[in-house]
Design brief:
By secondary structure, this protein is of the alpha/beta class. Helix content is about 40%, strand content about 15%. The chain folds into five domains: about 180 residues, no CATH class; about 260 residues, no CATH class; about 140 residues, Glycogen Phosphorylase B (Rossmann fold); about 210 residues, Glycogen Phosphorylase B (Rossmann fold, 3-Layer(aba) Sandwich); about 280 residues, Spore Coat Polysaccharide Biosynthesis Protein SpsA, Chain A (Alpha-Beta Complex). Strands 31, 32, 33, 34, 35, 36, 37, 38, 39 and 40 form a ten-stranded mixed beta sheet that branches. The chain has an eight-stranded parallel beta barrel with strand order 1-2-4-8-9-10-12-15. The radius of gyration is 39 Å and the shape is globular.
Length: about 1250
Amino acid sequence: MPTNLRIIGHSGLFDTAFYLSRNPDLRDIGSGALQHYHASGWREGRKPNAFFDPAWYLATNRDVTDDPLIHYLTKGEYEGRRPVAWFDPVWYRQANLVPANANALAHYLANRQAPHVRAMPEFDTAFYLRSYPDVAASGMDPVEHYMVQGYREIRRPFEGFDPSFYRMRYLRHQPETNPFLHWLEHRHEAGVFPCLPEHETTTAREIRRRTQAGPLFETHHPLPAAAIRRARVLAYYLPQFHPNAENDRWWGTGFTEWTNLSRGVPRFADHYQPRIPRDLGHYRLDNEAPLREQARMARQSGIEGFIFYHYWFNRKRLLDTPMETLLNCPDIDLPFCLMWANESWSRRWDGSETDVLIAQDYREEDDEALIDDLARHMRDPRYIRLETHPLFMIYRPGTIPEASSRIDRWRELFKARHNLSPIMIMAQAFDDHDPRPFGLDGAIEFPPHKLTLDCTPIENRVQILDEDMTARVYDYAELVSKALADPAPEFPRIRTVCPSWDNDARRQGAGLVLHGSTPRLYEGWLSETICQARAHPFHGEAIVCVNAWNEWAEGAYLEPDIHFGSAYLNATARAVTGFQSSFAPHRLLLIGHDAFPAGAQMLLLSIGETLRRNHGLEITFILLGGGDLLGRYRQVGTVEILKPNTNAGRERLQSLHDEGFTNALVNSAASTWLVPDLASAGIEFTQLIHELPGMLKHHHLDAPLATARLLARSVIVPGAQLTRLCPEAVIMPQGLYNPVVFSEADRRRVRLAYGIGSDALVVTGIGFGDIRKGFDLFLQLWQMIRSPVFHDARANPLGAKNNSEGCNDLTGQTRPVHFIWVGAIDETLSRALSADLEAAQVTHCFHLPGRVEDVGPFLSAADLFTLTSREDPYPSVVLEALASGLACMAFARNGMIPDLLDDLIREGDGRHAVIAPGDLPATANWILSRPPQHGDVLADRLERGIALRQRFSFDRYVRQLVALSLPLLPSISVVVLSYNYAQYLAARLATIFSQNCPVTEIIVIDDASNDGSAALAEKTATSFDRRITLIRQTRQSGSVFAQWQKAAEIATGEWLWIAEADDLSEPEFLAELSAVAAQAPQASMIFCDSRAIDRDGVTISPDYKGYYQQHAGHDLDRDLLMDGENFVRNFLSRCNLILNVSAVLFRREAFAEALTRCRSDLDRLRLAGDWRLYVEILMKPGAQIGYLARALNIHRRHEQSVTGALDLARHLDEIDTLHALIGQRLGRNASLASSQAQYRAALRAQFGLRTPPRKKRARFS
């Protein structure tokens, strides 16, 4: 039996050099060190190595009384006991795959220099060596370095540990204590943090957070020109961004508003300061370039024009350079009006009369000069008018002596000297709210003036960072709710919103802050304010103002900044038009692990693009990390990066849930770390799984994926192989998101660029070139094909040599062979293969173009595609290769592509191959057996590619994802019917694209128009970045009902909206009608009231309530759900009260069946066919109809419409026909017959027609 000394000596745990260096008094005992330790050293607390502490071991394990190292070696480690407090042998053994018969600590001591070996989960070896190059250069064990001296040098054991913070908070009186070990011992106690926690902050931390892109950052998304503006939206404009002599004298040379901006700092936690401009930078308004860019940006964001502050003091103008620039550049497309900032200027920036810099004296002798100056601006054709009246604003009428009579005199001067009658209004500020005492025509709000009066200050609810702060702080959300609840006054008023307000840059801790603004809160305020403006027009117009465009020093601006980007501009555009509204009822989170340019990430990006483009679905990406694709993600939707299992992440997900994101699509197993946080926020999700078991194990994803499977609404996999991992999964091949098309032009171009002849055989591989993708096998395959030994064995089994050289295939043919790998190469693998790669590239037959955005041209140039991956679930590049018509090869048992290729082979496409894993000779033989691709072969390739693109339809795949991810989303097909309606079509499509309910598809049927309608439809869809299916009919149908029939045949949705091309709709139309449909499963039709407009878009009537009341009383004043037969009896038996088909949402199946049943009648009815169809739908037993009393449809009435110009007698004849049909269906009764007769008699009198003789009625189908 081995002695204790032998056990220790052979264990690898006694380090003689360490023992002697740490114990200078023993330096002369030499080889007797081990015996000294065993005899007495352990009793004296002497350590046998840096990672075994005898004193700690004995203190922790009271049952051990002899040499603790012997105990650890023979019993302790196997019992899970630790050699020191921080080394866990159980964890280490599992994490580092220690053999069963090996000692974990000894394994670490022997392998600790290996980069993949970690001593403990908390210590980040790679981070330590990367952060401290001196340690890396020394060759020391980083853990030992830290434990011995690193902690004394205030070094970090991992990125998230701040030793300075930890010492200051927890070890102020224990300076010699190792902070990392102290944290390990106490980390589970409440209030113990490794660094300043997320919920605590400092001024520096706040500045750092606010001077980078935040989670709500957005790039600018310009509105399409055709987008319908729901109101005229103006923005206040500050011209204070250029030097002038007065400001130089008062504030110092070079002063502009930007000078103030630099003084803003955060005074409390989450205080948004400083504010830094982004896209436009710190511009100077003494040249026209910034003004042009501002005009473009405002126009593309739904803002009609600017309200320029006009500074005029006793005949002297200040800060007038931008205005003069605009007047002198008539080509700048920027409507404008003026607000006279008529208060004196003081050094306090608040209009007070103390320390006045320039006074406003209102001298009567200056009146004519004032009016002449204002009229000069009003003569500009861009000046904003209400009808013919210029709009002019006065900031503080209360400072004008005898204001009412003075303003009357100004009106007289405007009329007498310039024949102008401006609408003159005042700002509601400084306790002056009513324009009537001043003789003004109305008021305009000027928040935060007035609105904060009823709000509660919240300084006591924020964490103060500046103890000298005296500012008043209000909750932005409370102010919004109070503003929206403010009733309309008795005088005309323009409502105003502000994106934010914070004048800390001017007042430095003593100003006013509206705290907590977000783009969504602002959008909601502006959107609801627009609704109020439409309900309460200002001098006949729906007008809303925003304070402001560029008040940077007051935190009130729409221009892009560093933190939010263009989020507030985009919110403005959404509110003004309803396009891509943040308040859509059906919204979806797309969860991805990062934005690295690889397959799963590209798939998620493409899913997002398709959801938005095809269906109009509002999406937000949640990523667990960044990457090179982040910019492209942000072009598609909002992107937020959240860290799983953090309070901040959970709080943000809860906020998103409250904003309507109640459903999510989790893109991969690698994203499942966020699943518990989704569940805690109440967000239901659908789980996609792409990863194969090997990858799951390698990335430690088994446990989070198991959790995701338990919590997911459904699980989707691309092929049957993964159902062995997840039996409950739905099999759904992912589809082709990059629709590659074979191009002979691209084939020639790429081959020419790389010196490849037209007769050469080109083999390609695509992807990130690493071991998993089999890039090394791809290189070996090329080397094998070039090898004379391989070709001798293949071409001459008897052993004769073949001495061909170059890129030829050495088979007796002279056909060159080229290999192209498209994609970045893993750096580690590239270094390992550097000699082989250099030798390959020198031949000019092995090509590495690197990562490219579009792989299509390289696929066109190729003849074969090889998937040499060792493990690859369902790579899209193979689908792209197949869509390009290429023959493809894959190794068997490598994901689900081999199954796909086997299916294609069974279906008769024998070009493909599935080869035993790693069998390069068989792969080489398959490559060299390919025939040349010329003429008919290329034509066949093109045809096969087209067929496979249809098979791998990405649109169909995404529709299936939508159905599983949003099970309550209605399936709606929108069909636009158009014949020579180019004048109206763009606006019609704009209102469809602006619907806040996603749709299944948008189909435009053009009935052989000759006015360019079809091209306009495509152009409009492109400008909105939306997809439409355009049906171009070459022959006119001659019947609207033939078009309805075609719509029913083409559409695939459960519901059908026939949207006539000349009508319009409110953004809520589909959402509101489909909500009724969801509550009425038996409904065959849902319709709403309509607003009537003329051919120029001018409102004729706000609704059809008056017409309804004339024929059916007040029953249609409110919403209703009714069975079909009763609706026919009450509302369709006398006349047709469904006045416009665009106002109706049909259940498609019921619509199609009814069309078939009454088609022969529709062929005879030119005017009353719609009425006939409604009756047919509703008279089917069990049918129901829903009605919404809100006028969400906009019906365009044409003076020369068919209804107005056609033979009136025929009109009456068709009504008579419908009356007979309805009477027959409802059962003839005298009351109904009498009512119908009265209606016909009234129309006959209205049309001036005599009573016709009785005639035999037509039979009805």
